[in-house]
């Protein structure tokens, strides 16, 4: 990214990067959401040659970073990684283009594209609820759930299972903690979850979006996202909500896919992402306010068909103690 350099050539380079309307539009989009060239072309309504040319300029000048995602490159901009002068320049440019009608149109098209990403996941789950347990076991095995539970501590905790699906993990966890709140936005998944919950009085199942979790601020001691984050269009928004529902010092536990290049697998499963590496997860957790985060790969189980998994943990902002007062 852009390094701190107060020489005139650095300032002129930054100004040059922001001197073109198309580059301003691109930066407004990739600051908000990591996007591929095809998605940028769709949102900007410009040909690929034009978008690629401007992306190269922005990358060469350090405004954006990119990573491989299957057969495509994804582009993003992080304010935290910009030098202070460049960040100030961008904040001014963003403020001055806030009322630009073109940018408002771009934002509407981006919202539609992100909704389409989420719809892919919803269509998959609507059809897979009846077979989800078998399919999940075949693809990922079973031990990842035990790894997640081992990261939990006191038996009086209130734990949120976000994206609980058919409540496999929530039901296994309920006998070991004070209360489990399972949240999922799929009605089909929750119907299957309620059948599994049976007589578990401390298992509370709720329907809701993970971008607006139906749990009060600080209500939980720990929260889990197990094989969920790769399905959401905006992981940053979900992780910020995860931090909101945790008490100060509460624990976040995430199990998801490591980066892979199986685009056919992603499409088959209706996923929005092709996995998360350690640096990416560290950045996402830091941006959401978590501290003391760790990410490590989980040992692949024999005979599973899906990509390898990772386990991430983080501590919610506030008092770092994990014990209730």
Give a short overview:
This protein is α/β, with parallel strands linked by helices.
Do you know the CATH architecture of the largest domain?
Answer: 3-Layer(aba) Sandwich
Overall structural domain count: 2
Mean pLDDT over the full residue set: 87
Order of helices and strands: HHEHHEEHHHHEHEHEEHEHHEE
| Count of alpha/pi helices | 13
What sort of overall outline do the alpha carbons produce when their principal axes are compared? globular
Number of strands: 10
Strand content: 15-25%
Distance between the termini: 43 Å
Give a quick set of tags describing it.
disordered C terminus, 325 residues, 10 strands, disordered N terminus, 2 domains, Arc Repressor Mutant, subunit A, three-stranded antiparallel sheet
Describe this structure in words.
This protein has two domains: 8-99, Arc Repressor Mutant, subunit A, CATH 1.10.10; 130-315, Vaccinia Virus protein VP39 (Rossmann fold), CATH 3.40.50. Helix content is 45%, strand content 19%. The protein has helices at residues 8-17, 21-32, 37-44, 48-60, 84-96, 101-128, 132-140, 143-150, 168-173, 187-197, 235-245, 263-269, 278-287, and strands at 35-36, 65-69, 72-76, 158-162, 179-184, 203-207, 220-226, 246-257, 291-297, 309-315.
Topology:
Blueprint: H1 8-17, H2 21-32, E1 35-36, H3 37-44, H4 48-60, E2 65-69, E3 72-76, H5 84-96, H6 101-128, H7 132-140, H8 143-150, E4 158-162, H9 168-173, E5 179-184, H10 187-197, E6 203-207, E7 220-226, H11 235-245, E8 246-257, H12 263-269, H13 278-287, E9 291-297, E10 309-315
Parallel strand pairs: 4-5, 4-7, 5-6, 7-8
Antiparallel strand pairs: 1-3, 2-3, 8-10, 9-10
């Amino acid at each position: 990214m852009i390094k701190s350099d107060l020489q005139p050539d650095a300032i002129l380079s930054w100004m040059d990067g922001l001197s073109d309307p198309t580059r301003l539009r691109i930066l407004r989009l990739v600051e908000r959401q990591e996007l591929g060239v095809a998605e940028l072309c769709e949102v900007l309504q410009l040909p690929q040659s034009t978008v690629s040319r401007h992306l190269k300029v922005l990358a060469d000048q350090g405004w954006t970073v990119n990573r491989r995602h299957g057969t495509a490159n994804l582009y993003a901009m992080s304010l935290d990684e910009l030098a202070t002068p460049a960040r100030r320049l961008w904040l001014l440019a963003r403020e001055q283009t806030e009322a630009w009608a073109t940018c408002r149109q771009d934002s509407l098209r981006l919202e539609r594209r992100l909704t389409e990403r989420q719809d892919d996941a919803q269509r998959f789950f609507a059809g897979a609820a009846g077979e989800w347990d078998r399919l999940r076991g075949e693809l990922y095995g079973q031990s990842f759930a035990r790894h997640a539970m081992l990261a939990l501590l006191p038996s009086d905790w209130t734990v949120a299972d976000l994206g609980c699906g058919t409540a496999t993990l929530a039901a296994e966890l309920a006998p070991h903690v004070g209360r489990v709140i399972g949240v999922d936005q799929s009605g089909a998944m929750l119907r299957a979850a309620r059948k599994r919950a049976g007589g578990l009085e401390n298992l509370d199942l709720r329907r809701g979006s993970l971008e607006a979790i139906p749990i009060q601020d600080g209500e939980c001691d720990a929260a889990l996202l197990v094989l969920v984050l790769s399905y959401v269009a905006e992981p940053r928004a979900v992780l910020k909500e995860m931090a909101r529902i945790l008490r100060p010092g509460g624990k976040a536990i995430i199990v998801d896919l490591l980066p892979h290049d199986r685009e056919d697998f992603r499409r088959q499963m209706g996923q929005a992402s092709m996995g998360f590496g350690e640096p990416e997860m560290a950045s996402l957790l830091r941006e959401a306010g978590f501290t003391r985060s760790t990410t490590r790969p989980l040992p692949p189980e024999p005979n599973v068909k899906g990509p390898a998994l990772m386990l991430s943990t983080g501590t919610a902002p506030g008092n770092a103690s994990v014990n209730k007062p």
